[in-house]
Recover the amino acids of this structure.
């Protein structure tokens, strides 16, 4: 069991029964780190597909789609950082700024490479955010 | 416990340990009905906020944001229908076409009203899709 | 005269004097399969340009632009399916669900290949939809 | 028969058998003023729906959707102006710059009002562009 | 002379001769806080237009457009924070995380109100970011 | 000092104290040619990065991102042309139509090549627009 899946399985435990959660500026109050995680899984899958292919057109498409998906990861993470987290959360979790900065930087790095470990690192960071997110929901 | 939450909790059981799943045309193979569900929860929350307010500007913003979120619900559902589901899934679940048609029509209806039961009906339909989705993953 | 152009010329006859037709969820009531067809022609043209070139940068751009145009085809078709067609249309044309499913799947296939026959198949399916669309307008 | 429909019916005659035509910067060579016209018909329909309703939420949605559709009109017209028309077309049709400038300004005006005559004026201008477009195709 | 304009005029001095600067993940290396500032000026202008009008449709449009412009402010600021600023910048300017967090939160607040002072506060924060940005360019 | 930088430095002089300036159809009244210029600088930087690299994936990404940035240049220029400039500006500057037509065509050309002189020509044209823009503000 990898660190990433352990983080998520921990998040799964703490977050059950997984109600839904804010992601617009109304604000509607529906936020969920799953949005970033799903796109990051897609980034990782694009890398694996790129590495497993020797068809140039396919590889070009993998690079192109990974770029879009990584941008979506950044967007979903930025929204969580700015819109969901409040000063009291930051007091309890002073590492939040640095964590989001590094996670969004990792999504940027994932655009530039097809090294799967970069996507895994991104997923691990999203896993840490997910864990903190669900702790603030308790 | 509502029908919707029962459907999701069933989906939660059948889908564990919830690996990730295709949503682009590479295809990367990462799909997840949670994307549609999160936006639909946002649609429902916008309706509740609209109904609970008597501030015209706020109500305008609720209508506007609900419109966008409902469009995202439609998009995520269309992607699942066209890209994830294959002829063999349709054989096992012949109701799929009608279910997606009605679910995306329900998302369209949710743009036109602030009647929360319309959003709940939408969520119930997404719950049915979610259940079938995870059954095909077994 | 190809099957595709015959289908369109038939549609041209039945649709005259070609009034305009709904594509938003107001709904404004303006729909027109021409939107999907124009993008699909662009998909086909991108393939032809790709096949006729030996400039790698140009070929990369053709793949990239085809991806966007095929996505627009899917979007315009999904909108027609969910928003324009009503239960009474489905009774008269029970093949509609399968036709739209296959047409949007064909648009997805067109992203993955530069085989012009795939784009022609997509255009033929849009032609069938166009024919049914204009019959419902009579 | 209005001026607009006469212009379009003229365009219909000159443009038959209406092959398809460029709208990206590859360029794929597929252009068609129908894209702008369909969105402009939607703008007009939104105005009519706005004027015929006394439901505030519906009216808000009509304004919002009209704004998007009018933006699409502008986009499709700008693409035609910059990408399709060439210096030799301008020599033959020296009014093109002024015509596109006024047509896109009319689309901007259509965002600001629910006066249907503004949308009709926009449609008439698109009709003039359509006529010139198909003349250049002869 | 307000605090905001003083900050900008200071930035003008330190940034001359204003070369250009990264805003994509290539990265192309072209960044400029002017992008966020221009959109924030638009947010402020929308508020002023809203406050100065008694036309409901116009006011609705002002709210709608302000929402989009404020979202663009957030986007441009997030890009600067994640993509431009590096660990060595943070060492020299440890307030950066908090400053960007508060500036993007201020853009979110600006969606919810037509109180011009909120837009001015947003502009002041962008001014502080602009000042630090150009200091890192020296 | 190149022609481009001279044009901009002239614009800098005439435009001080650089107030802000309309770019939506409210209209909010905030326009600024800097938006087009920043994206055009990015286009140029993408070309330079493309030419300086022999990594195929990196080159693909440079082409892809340049395509997006050039599209943004076109958009910002079109908005200025249609929305900011009025008939009285055209009387004083009768070259405006031709200048915007050529500038947006240059942005289209920049998508098709990695010849930096094309981007420099684009920047020079934006510089001319910028100069006229700030003259109309005097």
């Amino acid at each position: 069991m990898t660190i990433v899946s352990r983080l998520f399985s921990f998040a799964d435990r703490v977050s059950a029964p997984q109600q839904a959660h804010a992601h617009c500026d109304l604000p509607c109050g529906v936020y969920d780190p799953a949005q970033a995680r799903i796109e990051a899984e897609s980034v990782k899958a694009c890398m694996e597909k790129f590495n497993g292919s020797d068809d140039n057109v396919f590889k070009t498409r993998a690079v192109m789609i990974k770029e879009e998906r990584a941008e979506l990861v950044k967007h979903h993470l930025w929204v969580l950082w700015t819109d969901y987290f409040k000063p009291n959360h930051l007091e309890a979790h002073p590492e939040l700024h640095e964590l989001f900065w590094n996670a969004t930087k990792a999504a940027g790095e994932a655009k530039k490479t097809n090294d799967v470990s970069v996507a895994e690192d991104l997923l691990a960071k999203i896993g840490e955010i997910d864990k903190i997110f669900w702790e603030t929901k308790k």
